[in-house]
Design goal:
Two copies of one chain form a homodimer.
Chain A (H helix, E strand, L loop, with lengths): L1 H12 L3 H30 L14 H4 L7 H23 L4 H12 L1 H12 L5 H22 L2 H6 L1 H30 L6 H12 L4 H10 L6 H29 L2 H30 L9 H21 L3 H11 L5 H29 L8 H28 L4 H11 L3 H14 L4 H25 L4
Amino acid sequence: MPEITHHADTDALGPQQPLSMVRTALGYVAMIVLAVAAFFVIRHYGQSLVAPAASAVAPAAANAKSPVGGILPVLVALAAVIALGQVMGRLCAKVGQPPVIGEVLAGILLGPSLLGATISAWILPPDSAPYLGIVAQFGVILYMFLVGLELNAEWLRGRAHVAALVSHASIVVPFVLGAVLSLYLYPRLADSQVPFTSFALFMGVAMSITAFPVLARILTDQGMARSKLGALALSCAATDDATAWCLLAMVVGVARADTSTAVLVVGGTLSYAVVMLLGVRPLARRLAYRWDGEHLPRRAVALVFVALLASAATTQAIGIHALFGAFLLGVVIPHDSPVAKAFMQQLQNITTVLLLPAFFAFTGMRTDIRLLNTADQWLMCGAIIAVATVGKFGGTIAAARLTGLGWRESAALGTLMNTRGLMELIVLNVGLELGVIPPELFAMMVIMALVTTVATSPIVRRLVPAH
Amino acid sequence: MPEITHHADTDALGPQQPLSMVRTALGYVAMIVLAVAAFFVIRHYGQSLVAPAASAVAPAAANAKSPVGGILPVLVALAAVIALGQVMGRLCAKVGQPPVIGEVLAGILLGPSLLGATISAWILPPDSAPYLGIVAQFGVILYMFLVGLELNAEWLRGRAHVAALVSHASIVVPFVLGAVLSLYLYPRLADSQVPFTSFALFMGVAMSITAFPVLARILTDQGMARSKLGALALSCAATDDATAWCLLAMVVGVARADTSTAVLVVGGTLSYAVVMLLGVRPLARRLAYRWDGEHLPRRAVALVFVALLASAATTQAIGIHALFGAFLLGVVIPHDSPVAKAFMQQLQNITTVLLLPAFFAFTGMRTDIRLLNTADQWLMCGAIIAVATVGKFGGTIAAARLTGLGWRESAALGTLMNTRGLMELIVLNVGLELGVIPPELFAMMVIMALVTTVATSPIVRRLVPAH
């Protein structure tokens, strides 16, 4: 797809480049300074807040028990969620929604939210959660590896300054707004064990996610992937992804540990990223073109899998999540190399059709919408959706206008960046596992992820006629 | 490979067909009657035997504990066993052994046998066994599905009478000898909770396994897969596989339950096999040719995975192992259909390189050769190897001679059928999980599986010059 770079660089952004470079640089510095200042002001006020002594509901109860029943419940749960996910996915496709929405909904439908705890326990027995969780984690690790493999570093390079400004604005604004919202949510929903700083940081990151893979699928479905706007959206989303995961890594580091070990975690994460990008990347470039993708030798396959497991284990051991290591390994393997193509082709189906539904089932099992049973709670949920959308949409539009994009295109870009999709669910599960967010807030955030993702396609279709 | 059928049917076995048909039928009936009679005589004597009150070692202790430590130990264990497996596999290939031997050895090397419990626990912590076990089970389920997919039903049809006689002789003789050996082993090694009948039946089945996939790999490596002998060995091994799994299913049914539920289990298994072969097979034939393997639609992939999970869950729910359902589903999908080819191509690497090593690690973790620390125990181990080899080798040669094969070819066939490989390990793990065999006997049987598999290649190379 060299066409993308060509279009975007010369037609849309070329003429304004000298001016936009200066504007971009100034805007960028101002934005970061303001954001950091804003966060410290918020933190100052937030630290005096007191969270409820204990969460109303036991956190992630399913996770604590010892697994029983062996493999049978895992097989049944997976079969059910895949089958229902396909049905829901086709329904979604019929009304112009990405199928992944249907697959996520299938998990929630089979969870306690709608069927109730008793019936849901037949299909997704809470006892089997740890086993299902392991399969889900393998699914997410392989999926993030694929996301990393598909990430085209070229998209970031050519239009780095524009993509960086738009992307970082689309992160910073919802991040700051998410931290502001924490001032309201923390005394009402948080656990008193969780310090305000961790809570606000996590909420900030969770608000600022953009789902690169779902976005790519929406753009392809609309025939927009090769348009100027599509290319810009993709490069912004890719930058968003990379930035958000780095931020989350740091937040997890802070949330996991006291300050001194947090420094170790953040330091370890940064060092590992540097080692991977500067040390492993050149090695991966050399190896990735050496083998023929059609007849990949067994030792090459083993080498990639060992590297994947080792990289995932390293980030897990550092204190952040295994998926970061998987993503990083995907990033350092050139996306157009025979090795990358062979792995994408072979892992796609088993990961997205067989293993990832375990993650949807796992998420659905933990999402109990019945926890939201007061008007107050639904108000909070509405506030979360509003803040997430205003932040993402507003941040993107402001930055896009600043770089010279028209109103209509800026609005379409803002809508696209508001897609939260699967990535948001992964982030939320990390937060739930860490205990940073309670199950109620988890349910609200899952609803937010669904609403923002569902809203994208119809709005973009109105703003940009299909090609 | 229609060549195989052609060669074997007309050149080798065609001329003798009228005579061999009668001989085969008579021999077959005599064999089955004698075997059943022999088993009842053995059972008569065996039932008066008393097993030790409690096993010297806690059975499969690793399995009982609640899993801790999350995904990190699983990632580390997998990375270690894959990496070491590749190194060992290449060493094996250099000395003319199939690489799978090296991968199995890697699991045992990382287990407590050689490193000792303390060091081994760093790489394969016993606490993480349930998690590793789930990954291993997924690996085995997918692997057995692949074995089923690769099974060419045509191999069984054309030469059914010869293959059936040789194959069933190569099962019946070691089966009966295994039951006889039980008279010696039961009072020394078994747990008093286990009735003699279950023990003897299990030992019989465990002795009569032939590893179809390893055999196929050895034949391919030697350039023998398309020869008359190779085709006969493959069709015998395929029959062996199918028969042995049916036998094991029945044995598990008997071992799992009291007599009345055992009837239910055996009845359920047979009914399910009939439903799959008569009901699902025609449906699978129609569907399997409908889709293009290159661009398999997502719903086709989902349908196959849901069917796989459902079939595995059904046999697990019936009371036998999930792997039977996976194998059966593979068998009913035509092996040369686009769907089968697409799945074989996509699942091969992730199953055999990433997931199956979890099974080797899991097996290695449970194999503690240090349990064999007396001369008596090593004598028993030697007896097991001798009985397994004599039974398989003798049974095959006798039947092969009866159907008119020469001495040299009969001996080569006997050696080939003695390959136990990975299949034996799967069977042994089922026995260990059921508690039918104690860890000591498990270790002896693992050694037997390794020795018989290692012996195959060099002996066959002597008997049949490479093509």
